[in-house]
Amino acid sequence: MISRVLVPMDDSEMAEHALEYALEAHPDADITVLHIVGEPSAMMGKAVGLALEDDFEEAVEGRASQVHDRAQEIAHTHEKEIATDVAWGQPAKAIINRAADFDTVVIGSHGGSPAERLFVGNVAQKVFRHSPVPVTVVR
């Protein structure tokens, strides 16, 4: 039985589909939405920008708040409470590092801009290959 579900979420439509799927497929499970901040870009701009903030933790939380707010809205339509969490760094590594604390991961098939996908690679593919728990990839 699946009782704890991790849903990595960025600001993409596919990530929203993944959360919808998790809420519908696992209605009795505790669902945690994880947003990763400071992902690499071609010039490392986002990660460097975070490092220069006066209050690093506040900056990370601030950048995750929009995604978390949207996740809460989606959960509310399902009359479900969810937890939210934030991590910093490379998305695939951050997700894989957290996955062992859950029974499964439900992830969107792709997200981010085309340029970010080329540079970072397909996060869902990396998670699927290296996760210590089962992964469902949602389109």
UniProtKB/TrEMBL annotation:
Gene3D superfamilies: HUPs. SUPFAM superfamilies: Adenine nucleotide alpha hydrolases-like. InterPro entries: Rossmann-like_a/b/a_fold (IPR014729), Universal_stress_UspA (IPR006015), UspA (IPR006016). Coiled coil: none annotated. Residues 1-139 form the UspA domain. Belongs to the universal stress protein A family. PANTHER family: STRESS RESPONSE PROTEIN NHAX, UNIVERSAL STRESS PROTEIN UP12. This is Universal stress protein. It comes from Halorientalis brevis.
